Amino acid sequence: MSKQPKLLQLTFFWLPTLFGLLLLIGGLKYVYEVEVARPQMAYMGVPKTQNNLQTLTHVLRNDGFMLAYSEALANPVWVTYKVTPNTVPYGKRPRFEADWRSLAYIRHSDYTGSGYNRGHMAPNYVIASRYGFAAQKETFLMTNITPQKPQFNQKIWQRLEEISADFFPKQFGDFWVVTGPIFDADPKRFQKAPIAIPKAFYKIFIRPSDDGKAPVALAFILPQTAKPKDSLLKYVTTIDAVEAQTGIDFFWQLDDAIEHSLESSQNPQAWSLSQVANLPSRY
Predict the structure, then answer these.
(1) Helix (H) or strand (E) holding 70
(2) Contact 216, 207 (CB under 8 A)
(3) Global pTM value
(4) CATH code matching the domain that covers 47-275, chosen among 3.40.570.10, 3.40.800.10, 3.90.420.10, 3.60.15.10
């Protein structure tokens, strides 16, 4: 019997075994990603997208933050990260880059001439100063970017991000943030790219309470038309209101009674918001 038939026999014998092994490895990686890695990067459950506007979304895990990206909207729909008082060194401001994990594959140039800023959802400074340069570079991936009007991006949104970077960590220690855009049912898009334009943005802060019982939360919805000098108190809302406008279920692993109370109430006093609600923007 020639060597070639023997080789073919061995090949046909081992192919099913090899295929099964690859399936097993792939399955183990998926289980690790969904059951271990992602839950560690979200507070009380990875947010769940629920409405038709959130179709074609997939979760992308980065250094220091995690997000769900909508290929249909060419936008992230939620981004979550943990902020601590401790800071680390980081590098110079990176360049915007397309994300190979995205089918939409939005480029830096797609925003050029659009009239909109490239708005970070996981903020450059917060992530860089807590997680270092590698994480900072990933905040410049276009899957972390959404269209923001220049005045909105550089004024009231910048004010809110600065509070979350400096005031809240010094006052309260560790906390979590979930943030993202809000869209109309049929949002307008860029003329030269399929990027949907948000009508507003939400940001939710949440931390364990001092007594170790129910967490303390603070939620905002800010329209793109918000005035630069408006008090941030004007835009405080409930988590229920954010969920109603986004179709996303947040903090679903909380006890039902605690979740209902937390998400239906406003408590800016617990975050000393009145002390910083009218601070000017940096720009």
Answers:
(1) strand 66-70
(2) yes
(3) 0.88
(4) 3.40.570.10
